[in-house]
Amino acid sequence: MLLRRLLLVCVTLFAVACAHVKTNVDTAVIGKEVAVAPVAPVSEVVLPVTPQQMSSALLFNVLAGEIAGQRGNIEAAAVLYLRAARQSQDPQVALRAAQIALYKKDFSSARVAVDIFMKAGAVDSASRQLALIVYLRTGAIDESVKQVNGLLRELTVPKQGALLAIGDVISRNTTKTDGLLVINMLLQENPQDASVYLMRSQHLLDSGLVDRALLDVRQAVELEPSWSLPHLHYAKVLEAKGKVPQAVATLKLASDQFKSKSVLMAYAKLLLKQERYSLAKEQFQTVLLIDERTPRARFSLALIHMKLNELVEAELILQTLFEDKVFPAKAAFYLGRISYFRKDYQSATGWFERVPKGGDYVEAQSNISRIKFQLGDLAGAVNVVRKLRAASPEQSTKLYLLEADLLLSESDYLAVYALMNEAVGRAPTDLTLRYTRAIAATELNKDSLAEEDLLFVLAREPANANALNALGYLLASKTFRFEQAREYLTKALALKPNDPAVLDSMGWLEYREGRYVKSLALLLKAYKAMPEGEIAAHLGEVMWMLGRRQEAVELWQKALQQDAANRYLLEVVDRLQ
User: Fold this and answer.
1) By the number of CB atoms within 10 A of the CB, which of 186, 203, 217, 320 ranks highest?
2) Number of domains composing the chain
3) For residues 82 and 567, what is the distance between their CA atoms, to the nearest angstrom?
């Protein structure tokens, strides 16, 4: 029924918050924006008052409002019911009008209706909850506080839990400023209540007022030292302030004091975030001693085992999670990762194919593509990526780049250039696509197009070291604009002083300008860091020009043994020998 559906929506908003917070519960309620689900049409009309009690005009408005609501015309239902509420001053009609107005987020109309049924008195807990939301939404501070006090008198949950639930309702339904005014008034009436300090601390933290949040949570801890929730929030505020060691120490003390699952989980998660894997592993294992079925602890422990290269242990946990249907998609994805790491490509493919759409699906399918490439099936690998791109347009940029990477492995620069033209056409401002197209254009001697793309990138990211290096190398190797090349490469080298690609580019610029000794030093450093074919080609050519021809030949031969098809090596050997 429309009435019950709307009432349920409004009441559930509050009831869910209350259900999550109880005395000594260790999980803080975090505020979220109010979202009301759409209401399906209904076939039954239930009137707030009987037809005999209504005038003809009132009866028309009520019945017309019901029919409009059944047909999904919430706008008309709201207008008609508010009109009926004003005519009748009946609290039940007004309540219905408020519910509909709140559903359509017409808070000013909801306020009119709420004032009517509040004036009539005999307000129950559910309607008071609705009134609180409306008063918060319309900035009625005093009225909001009255409703909070009324709820505290009427709700059956303990006061600590009720206050924290109310804090969540406040944070979701009003501005930061008005919310703080309401909480301040509650604190004046409850100056020794730790839960109100905790409520205000959360509100201040959400508002970015970390120092003030820290003062309040300390007060909450002092008032209720045996309540674990303030300790958890204290650590959260310390972390937000950048005092991570103190946050870790706080959770360590709390875990020793309370030995509860939620505190241990919070401690373990913070350790995990800090990449302190061994200590985090101990905490998750302790959680599992308390409750061996805790899903998040089991999954986190499996990931830590993977980080520590304890693959057998990780695999055992993930297989159990998959069999228990606990995070099955995640479990299948990481089981695929383990098999891929072991080069068991058949098993890896099987696990990745079990990952459903959503979540890790795109990454799983991308891994299947990489497996096909590893097995020599480039066409199959590309086909997987193209199908995935068609099915997942929101991930198209990532998938264009994955296909480009596959094609670059075969030095198919013409195909990469065509692909990047298509990709840039779809996302013309994406800098990674532009950069990739520039690399392909450079290899195809489309130098002006490559320069245009690289300048586009640098106009938006002047400190993009890769683009600086690519443009500097383009100018150093294919033009005589050496002064400009040096400007770009000097900036790139300042950003990445030990990057072998940048060292190679600067070394090649020095060679092109005839400074062979400087060139040799830079290229030797680059080759030592990354003994790659193109760097070997450059280094050997400098050695050749310095008269160290036997060394150059030996270097080239060694490099060709590792990369026999490298076109830079083949070109320089053919030209100089």
Assistant:
1) 217
2) 1
3) 79
